[in-house]
Amino acid sequence: MIISTTHAIEGRQITEYLDIVSAESVQGVNVIRDMFAGMRDFFGGRSQTLERALKEARIQATEEMRERARALQADAVVRVDFEISMPGGKGGMVVVFATGTAVKLR
User: Fold this and answer.
1) Tens digit of pLDDT per residue, the chain (106 long)?
2) Which domain holds residue 80?
3) 3-state secondary structure 16-32
4) pTM for the complete prediction?
5) How distant is the alpha carbon of residue 73 from its chain centre?
6) What are the φ and ψ backbone dihedral angles of 74, each rounded to 5 degrees?
C-alpha cells in the first residue's frame, strides 16, 4: 500500500476517495532517561530517548492507519499528516496522530 504526504500518486490516477483514515500511538518516555535528556537539552545535544519514542510512535500510527485503509480495500493513503503531542509538558508520554485519505487507484 502506498502511503504519501502528497495529494496525488505520480503515474497513477485516483479513481475513488473512500474515507478519512486516522490512527494514534502513545509512547511512554522513561522518566530517568528523560531527566538526562533534559540535561542534554540544557547543555545542547539531541535527546535519543525522545527521538526513539517519537520514531516508534510514528511507525505504529502509520501501520495502524495502513490497516484501517486495507479494511476499506484502499490502494493508497494520500495527504498523510502527522501531529505530535506531549500531554502534561516535558516527559512522560508522547502521542503521534496520523491522518490521511484512503483512495482507490488506477
Assistant:
1) 999 999 999 999 999 999 999 999 998 876 555 566 556 555 666 677 788 889 999 999 999 999 999 999 999 999 999 999 987 665 578 899 999 999 999 9
2) 2-105
3) EEEEEEEEEEEEECCHH
4) 0.81
5) 21
6) -80, 155
Grouping H, G, I as helix, E, B as strand and the rest as coil, residue 59 is: helix
**Residues 16-32: b if buried by 16+ CB within 10 A, e if exposed:** eebeebbbbbebebeee
What residues are paired with 94 via a beta bridge?
27
How many CB atoms sit inside 10 A of residue 102's CB?
24
Q: Which residues contact 72 (CB under 8 A, 6 or more apart)?
A: 18, 19, 21, 102
Q: Count of domains in the chain? A: 1
C-alpha span between 106 and 91 (Å, rounded): 45
The CATH code of the domain that includes 45 is: 3.30.110.70
